[in-house]
From TrEMBL:
Pfam families: AIRC. This is 1-(5-phosphoribosyl)-5-amino-4-imidazole-carboxyl ate carboxylase. The gene is larB. Residues 113-245 form the PurE domain. NCBIfam families: LarB (NF033503). It comes from Enterococcus saigonensis.
Amino acid sequence: MDRKEILKGVQSGKLTIDEAAEKLKGFDELGYAKIDTQRKERNGYPEIIYGEGKNLEQIKGIVKVLEQEERPILATRVSIEKGKALKTAFPKGEYFELARCFVLQPMEIQTSDYIAIVTAGTSDVSVAEEAAVTAETFGNQVKRIYDVGVAGIHRLFARLEDIQQASVVIVIAGMEGALVSVVGGLVNVPVIAVPTSIGYGSNFKGLTALLGMLNSCSSGVSVVNIDNGFGAAYNASMINQLRRKK
């Protein structure tokens, strides 16, 4: 609820002055968490729940607060056990096992422009699904283009038209991370690179891919942290929504 809505609530008698004052603080105090209820007004998107390290009751408590705002709710890095329990507690929500995400009240599709999510291999798909679910939760169309890495680059060219027509491209790769440089040289839209922890010994749990992507010779490439599908999709969503506002 933004400030104008709160003041209108007082004017109409739906909120008391004390209730309005509580909401105008901008956060709900739960003891173990301070829920940022005004983040959407500042940043365009509501607060996201990072599920790892939180117990089930904590996640449920945060969801209950955010649910009252009637806005998209996304919890990332949620285990299967917690995800199934959240689905029971909030039957209208959905748990995406591969993405490890729980979603409630997703936005409707806001634009015909789409985000292409491209992976080098099948082993990168769990990170890609975190990105896809995040993007879809916030009203974006997504095209999934999986397993088109440089080891069989003809597979990439078979989907090149779909990639080139996207408003923004997320490229997800482990090993040496070479795919992002190839894609970056073939498109005229922003490319967001996600290194993954997939690879043999000298991959160093994604560090090799990260350094390779940071040193990409293709222009227009930005890089997020290892396995950070959420961060890539958040940025891609902002880019895609800016196109809609033109």
